[in-house]
Design goal:
This protein is α/β, with parallel strands linked by helices. The chain folds into three domains: 190 residues, Alpha-Beta Horseshoe (Leucine-rich repeat, LRR (right-handed beta-alpha superhelix)), CATH 3.80.10; 96 residues, no CATH class; 248 residues. Helices cover 33% and strands 18% of the residues. The strands form eight sheets. The chain has an eight-stranded parallel sheet. A six-stranded mixed sheet has the order 20-19-18-25-27-28. Strands 5-8-11 form a three-stranded parallel sheet, covered by helices on one side. It is globular, with a radius of gyration of 27 Å. The N terminus is likely disordered.
Length: 582
């Protein structure tokens, strides 16, 4: 009997060992060696220590080739994989669990969850939990094609999120719970998630860009629970600041915004010192939005504090976007103009095909020329949503990009939208260029924007057309303006008018302050475009014969630009009238 009991005990111990195992990893990349010959027999794995991309690949193999179904990384730190430029501290590797039978994953502290389907095509995945602090999670979406996914739960503080689409084509997803504090979120409707009825918010939301979906918490009086959550978020920000927590460069925006939103929360309930401390931390983290901070009504209780004035003044040199333009060196007319800008005529065979494919004459309508230009821009804005994190794998021409977006149900970034719009205009006989607009700090600020300049034959001038925001700009008499005119009027303090229906994806309206005086004023320091403009002008080495390869940048005198083959300081040349006629 004793022998039987002993054998049963050993059998039970062996079964327990294989069913669930906690592995301590003192260094990254050692998970496989720590498990040894038990690698493919573990069903539930908890890691206490550090993991990197290699360890994630080991877990994927354990699921794909073995029995692993449940992963607990609550006590694991995600580490950078050597010199791999595609990984960084705290980053969940993209699509590592694709086509594996993993059913549940729990994370501890995570710096970044990329969009574009980090959790893509996970056929058995039912539940994902974030128990620790989360720096940033993209929309884009982060979860896609997970047919049995039911729950996504955020228990810890979240610095920031992208948006609007957290998940796509996860038909059984019914619960997205926010149980901690969120510094700022732009999550909104999900796509193809038929059982999803709305977000479950049990925590504190300091800022929401989609309040119809995730309401901002009432912060005029912080409850003890709210204050505890907010202090926890601030503690995480301090951890990033003092180096206790490694932080990837690309989530620092979320860190500084989270600290700023904490300052707003404390200011609203008249907690002056805590508000100013948080605001100082936000600025230390890189917050520089001078115009917004100056006008932010959340700071009315602290606006007259000398410390607030000092903090505001400290960011003007970098954060007052119009001020930076005003301080920029002037443009100077060149003695010898640069290479002539050229435009494919509407009789070009490819452009004829574009005109017919899109039935552009019907879209433009029978009204005047300027209205036709606007109609085509509005049409494109309605047809393809903006997705700042996505550029489809397709030839860079209007027809192919449109087809892929429609076939995949995806959006496209501002560059893709501007490429398409410029070709639609060219096909109608309106010379056009897509223009990359960048900030003075282009080497550290990747947030550029791409819009169109289109020539109006009737007005004899260039017009500003932005398909991302369905935006155009006029003077105070209603005359449409071009990029150069808008920049000049910003510098000179002359009136500008943004069309009232300017919007992002029909989900948020644009204000002139946010769109022009902050976002575009920042991005009108460097302007770059191609010398030749036609069908598939940008194809990175595969241009049609005869296409010029010059990428021409207009910069203030004395400024260089790293990505351009040709730099000019001559605005008259850059905005010269096209030589072809209608």
């Amino acid at each position: 009997m004793k022998q039987i009991a002993l054998l049963m005990a050993l059998a039970f111990a062996f079964t327990f060992e294989m069913a669930g195992r906690t592995v301590k990893t003192a260094s990254a990349g050692t998970l496989a060696s720590r498990l040894g010959n038990k690698l493919l027999t573990v069903k539930e794995l908890a890691v206490d220590g550090v993991v990197d991309k290699t360890d994630f690949e080991t877990m994927a193999r354990m699921a794909r080739d073995g029995q692993l179904r449940k992963i607990d990384l609550s006590r694991a730190a995600i580490w950078k994989s050597g010199d791999d430029k595609m990984t960084d501290f705290g980053v969940v590797p993209s699509r590592v669990f694709q086509d594996t039978p993993v059913e549940e994953i729990t994370f501890g502290d995570v710096s970044y969850v990329p969009g574009g389907g980090t959790f893509y095509r996970c056929p058995n995945l039912r539940r994902v939990v974030f128990n620790g602090a989360l720096g940033h999670i993209d929309g884009g979406p982060a979860f896609s094609e997970c047919p049995v996914l039911e729950e996504i739960i955020f228990n810890g503080p979240v610095m920031s999120t992208g948006g609007p689409t957290l998940a796509m084509n996860c038909p059984r997803l019914r619960r997205v719970a926010i149980n901690g504090v969120v510094g700022g979120t732009y999550f909104g409707p999900l796509s193809g998630c038929t059982e999803f009825k709305g977000y479950e918010v049990n925590g504190t939301v300091l800022l929401s860009g989609m309040e119809d979906w995730i309401p901002k918490s009432s912060l005029s009086e912080l409850s003890p629970a709210d204050e505890k959550r907010v202090d926890g978020l601030l503690s995480q920000v301090k951890g990033y600041q003092d180096g206790r927590v490694p932080v990837p460069e690309f989530i620092k925006r979320g860190v500084k915004q989270a600290a700023y939103n904490v300052a707003c929360a404390y200011a609203l309930c008249n907690r002056k010192e805590k508000a100013l401390d948080a605001l100082q931390l936000a600025i230390k983290a890189g917050y520089t939005d001078y115009s917004h901070m100056k006008r932010d009504l959340d700071f009315d209780y602290i606006r007259n504090e000398a410390r607030f004035d000092s903090l505001l003044a400290s960011i003007r040199e970098e954060g007052d976007k119009v001020y930076l333009l005003q301080k920029a060196a002037p443009y100077v007319k060149a003695e010898v103009p640069g290479p002539a800008f050229t435009y494919a005529p509407p009789t070009d065979s490819d452009l004829v095909r574009v005109r017919q494919f899109f039935n552009l004459d019907s879209i433009a309508g029978g009204g005047d020329e300027v209205q036709g230009i606007k109609n085509i821009m509005y049409w494109l804005h309605d047809q393809i949503r903006h997705d700042g994190g996505h550029f489809p794998n397709a030839n860079r021409n209007a027809i192919d990009l449109y087809k892929v977006c429609k076939a995949e149900g995806c959006g496209i970034n501002c560059r893709g939208l501007a490429i398409i719009l410029s070709e639609l205009y060219l096909a109608m006989g309106w010379p056009a260029r897509f223009v990359t607009c960048e900030s003075k700090h282009d080497d550290t600020d990747p947030d550029c924007h791409v819009i169109c300049m289109v020539w109006s034959h009737n007005l004899g001038k260039w017009l500003w057309m932005d398909p991302t925001f369905a935006a155009y700009v006029c003077d105070d008499e209603g005359t449409p303006l071009g990029i150069g005119e808008v920049r000049e009027r910003l510098i000179n303090g002359q009136p500008l008018v943004l069309n009232e229906d300017a919007n992002w994806n029909h989900q948020s309206m644009q204000t002139i302050d946010r769109y022009l005086y902050q976002y575009m004023a920042k991005n009108l320091y460097y302007l770059s475009t191609y010398q030749h403009n036609g069908f598939q002008s940008e194809d990175f080495g595969n241009r049609k014969p005869g296409f010029g390869e010059k990428f021409i940048t207009l910069a203030p005198i004395g400024r260089d630009y790293r990505d351009s083959k040709y730099i000019t300081h001559d605005a008259q040349y850059f905005f010269s009238a096209p030589s072809i006629k209608k």
